[in-house]
């Protein structure tokens, strides 16, 4: 069960109402990367995650994010309620839909659970959460760059901070499962193509990096020669530039 | 520009058409975790990612995923085209909407770009991609468990394999940026609360783990005493169980 | 701020897992009439409603609905977690998306904030809330009629009960504003057509009732004669069957 | 069957085209609270409502709302067609999508049937309709406050007026069923908790009102003591401030 | 303005209620190709189409489609209302959402105005209408193949018939504008590439037809040699198989 | 399989970045009439269209449209990346969501597969494609009218050109099936009402044209007299103005 306390997790104080900025803030109230997405994603995961400590962590963070949702809502309320009659030129959204927060993003699109990524496996869930935190952090940075007053900025820096905090927690949780740096998880072993890199986009300079270099990866320069389908059964690959050191790699990538 | 070759990346061969399974496969054609989501997400990222090698990697993988989309489409086509007149009892979807793939998930919901996670920063993008791959892998595992024939199963295992391959590549890419295990990224330094863990969900046993233990984290057992807002300015926290070793942590979490 | 307690508002106990019924229950977790809609609607209203006692009521009920969301989630979890491997024939949704609740309705459609009705005026909000409770009650009745075990049924009857309780509270709140039985609210006085009833659908027997009878209403039997536009300036209406007693009515309907 | 007459229900006359205001008007053409929502909601209800007089009323009002949809469309047409080439700075929407009305709201979001609230019971339907009318009235008030010319304003006041008229009719209809002021409806009797009020949001001053006072309601000040689950079987509630006069209340709230 | 008559355009008579088929019929009530899409598309076009006879035609057909929507709704009502208590096994949709039509498709997805195609030009609108009629006809054929009784089948054949009728009318209308067989319309002349066909998909046998043959079209067999960008200024194309007879073609394709 | 080449189909060169115009261009990247809609629609059709030459044409054009999607994306990238820090006043979208293209339209609405029209029959598919090309052409014209620089304009004229080219191809393809000017297709013969025109919208002058004139069509001036249902069995129609020459017409319209 949830209990509400009539105080914010961290107080917010907008210095001067700014309808336009209030509208931008909807990104983190009813937008894809916002606090509603985060809190509902972690909350719904907590039901199917059976590992008790991780379940507890998900509930702790989900509940904190509900408090953050309230903080963002209060920022929007303060940016919109101080003004007298709202002119649509200043903010079409608050003039037509009413002041205060709404579960819309800053373009008026309704929040949808299609933003949520979860289901079936705790590693998948934790990786989804790191991605959600990254999106949230990115949007907070964008908002801070546009923030018109110090009070808004300070609150947004705190909210950005907590996304980093949660990222650190989710990374530790993945690490505790051995899945922060190991690509493999789940119950189905991969086939022999797991360490092939297909150079599907060519012309100009083909760039290389640790993500397509030996010994971890086997680079197929021209997938049309040495067609991907040819390499499937693990036979030698004509168009491949490098000798394939399969055994060592498979143990790294496939467990 | 894209060029299409009339051969699949890896050939697929369904042994016996199964309309119901064909419908399930739509999850990976027009569903949230499917190949369309992956290919469009990496493709759209490739425009704003300025790091040339990473841009090339995104295009390589995006293009491979388009080939995977085609493979899943062909699986669906083979599962649905072999049968004579489709009875709605066998598959409401193919009976009413026509045979072959559609950009719908297995419940008939239209694909939406709300599934895509991208924008503004390459670290955010790569983290989003690892999450997308995790979702895709999870759905492939679910489908493999339901697969009615060996041909479908083999194709799905290959597609699952490549999600792990891509995860490995994205992890290497993040590692090359120093961001695989570092929670921090971007241009805004966090505030003093970055290493606090708030125990927002209580009653019963509060579980602990590396994600809320010293020295990395500072555990606030009761956020109502030692209110989160009180800890904001960095003062001592009455309800905290442990001494706060802030200096070392801040360097870890905040850079 | 919100605090979570690891106990349900009212314990739920499913006697025998039933995947299909678990899927039906999603209607009240991620569906249009479900607990998420209610809790978010009342919560978001609480920001712009300035009447302090009503704001408090909205927060009390919003928070209770979050607890109800958790109860429904736990019912779904119990209906899906007890079974061993889920066969897609039993539940396509849990087989492909994973066990436990998701923010989808029972047809797999993602929850959307388009379900929410709020904004700009407390009377509008409270009327919206009575409608939301009516929808929720209706769906609970449908679910109770399909419930396979006494434990589920008992929990659902409780949840249905609370929708009636909230309706009673919202009715009292509207009554305290004088708006439970008065159609008028807001700041714009209506024009002279406020008590006309246009019989736009004809043929067969035109039914009459208190909603189109004098003295409250003035019935225009044939809007093509005595065109609605003709009656606009308040002149006599040729096609009208009854004498118009405007003065008394206007005071009732227009304030 | 429907017949169309090439005249408006009430003529509209825009004095000076205003592209921006034309865009705002889309709220009531293709927006959540607009005339399409109302007309389709009442029309679809008319199929399953078996009470003949109420079915007739629903068809009368649904058809009138179609006429209102046409009036709003004509206002938009007049605001957009008079101007010569539309510059996107004046209205991004009409410049890119063409002049005249579209089934979009003023932010370009496509109308969705998720806005509709109906099904299964006439009381639920009528309550939904009062809520829809309240939303429509509220948006008309917002638009009137922004209206640039008297012709638009006069038309909008008429449309606002008719929402009040319909509210009055729906209230009479609910009253005829005895459901305007009675919270209970349907076929499932509530359990013993029907008149409890849970004070789920605390700190600061807890406000009280007729919605949580005896004799109608029983106030549980601290749901953590006297847990809601404890009160379920109807036993005495330690944390409750007041003696519970259950018998009289149950008759009021439960029928 | 619209007037409703309480009789169907063409009476429908379901012989035996069939809940499952009732659910399928939702495709044409609240689905993408259904009567709501058609009627609203033509109605909204009627505002911006300035050609008076075409505007009248759009209103005639839009209004007929509203009558068809009512017929489909009545078919659904008859398929669902005859049965006693609906078991969810028979129809999850009617058991959980109530009997009769809803603005959902047969998979429970809410109707969206994203299905509508219109705007800015009458040729575009009429082409969109022919496409909408084609989709509607296709779905009616699918439904007729599943129809369980002669009464339903007869009604559906009539509705399918009228889609063909409307197609014939829209074709005549396009023909009257000279745009049924002329690809060009609008105010911007095309550039020199208008009659090039790029063979973007190769391997296997490249099929040819009148859509990529001279004299109307100029076939570029390998867009990588004779790159499309090279042909842009109208110079000779190395990879082209045929001599380019530009002058005659341009007059055909470009006006 | 798809192969990507790191060069555009036709190079694009924006002369001066313009954030606002970059946002407008999203209409053709992530909007209803954009290149993603076209490429995915033709690609998904290619699976179920069994006519090999038409399947090849669909793949050729789908692949070209993917190249066009990339061109539009590059235009957006060039309009947004040249500028230094984006101020939200210049473009709310790029300031909050990041520079470069996104799968959103210019109003921030996420792309949805509800824009796609396909399924079950090649004639339906080709008609849908002509409509899609018409919508795309129309939007390109709107964008060209707003284009701030010659480089953008030239690229957009090329993209508009190719929509006309594709229209020409689809028209030839339909013609090769005999379905460009014949309204009928599919397997269900229409009933006797196929050539009736119902004058559903009256008052004012009823306009006539080739779409409701003999000998092809039979005009029913007043559907209330000579009710549509009366004409169904093919009997004489009292309200009809003209003698019905059914036999010749049926052969034209029904095949």
Summarize the structure in words.
6 copies of one chain form a homohexamer. Helices cover 48% and strands 5% of the residues of chain A. By secondary structure, chain A is mainly alpha-helical. The first copy, chain A, has 2 domains: 19-176, Ferritin (Up-down Bundle), CATH 1.20.1260.10; 196-254, no CATH class. Chain A has a two-stranded parallel ribbon. In chain A, helix 1 (19-25) packs antiparallel against helix 3. Chain A is globular. Residues 233-255 of chain A have low confidence and may be disordered. At the A-B interface, helix 3, helix 5, helix 6 and strand 2 of A face helix 3, helix 5, helix 6 and strand 2 of B.
What would the keywords be for this entry?
homohexamer; Ferritin; 4 strands; mainly alpha; 2 domains; 8 helices; two-stranded parallel ribbon; 255 residues
Strand content of chain A: under 5%
In total, the number of strands of chain A is: 4
Low-confidence stretches of chain A: 233-255
Q: What is the mean pLDDT of chain A?
A: 90
What is the CA–CA distance across the termini of chain A?
41 Å
Largest interface pair: A-B, 95 and 95 residues
Q: Tell me the series of helices and strands of chain A, N- to C-terminal.
A: EHHHHHHEEEHH
CATH homologous superfamily designation of the largest domain in chain A: Ferritin, core subunit, four-helix bundle
The number of domains of chain A is 2
**Which outline of chain A best applies?**
globular
What is the number of helical segments of chain A per DSSP (H or I, 4+ residues)?
Answer: 8
CATH class of the largest domain in chain A: Mainly Alpha
Q: Largest sheet of chain A, described in full? A: 2 strands, parallel
CATH architecture of the largest domain in chain A: Up-down Bundle
Strand order of the largest sheet of chain A: 2-4
């Amino acid at each position: 069960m949830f209990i509400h306390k009539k105080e914010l997790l961290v107080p917010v104080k907008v210095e001067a109402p700014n309808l336009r900025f209030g509208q931008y803030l909807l990104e983190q109230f009813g937008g894809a990367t916002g606090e509603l997405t985060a809190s509902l994603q972690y909350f719904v995961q907590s039901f199917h995650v059976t590992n008790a400590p991780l379940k507890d962590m998900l509930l702790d963070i989900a509940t904190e994010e509900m408090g953050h949702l309230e903080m963002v809502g209060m920022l929007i309320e303060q940016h919109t309620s101080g003004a007298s009659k709202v002119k649509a030129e200043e903010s079409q959204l608050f003039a037509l839909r009413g002041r205060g927060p709404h579960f819309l993003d800053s373009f008026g699109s309704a929040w949808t659970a299609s933003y949520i990524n979860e289901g079936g496996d705790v590693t998948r869930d934790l990786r989804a959460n790191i991605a959600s935190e990254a999106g949230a952090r990115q949007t907070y940075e964008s908002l801070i760059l546009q923030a018109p007053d110090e009070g808004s900025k300070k609150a947004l820096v705190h909210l950005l901070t907590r996304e980093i905090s949660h990222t650190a927690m989710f990374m530790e949780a993945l690490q505790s499962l051995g899945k922060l740096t190991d690509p493999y998880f789940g119950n189905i072993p991969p086939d022999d193509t797991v360490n092939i890199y297909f150079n599907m986009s060519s012309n100009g300079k083909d760039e290389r990096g640790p993500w397509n270099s030996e010994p971890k990866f086997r680079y197929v320069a021209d997938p049309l020669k040495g067609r991907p389908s040819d390499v499937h059964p693990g036979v030698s690959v004509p168009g491949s530039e490098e000798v394939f050191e399969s055994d060592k790699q498979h143990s790294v990538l496939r467990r």
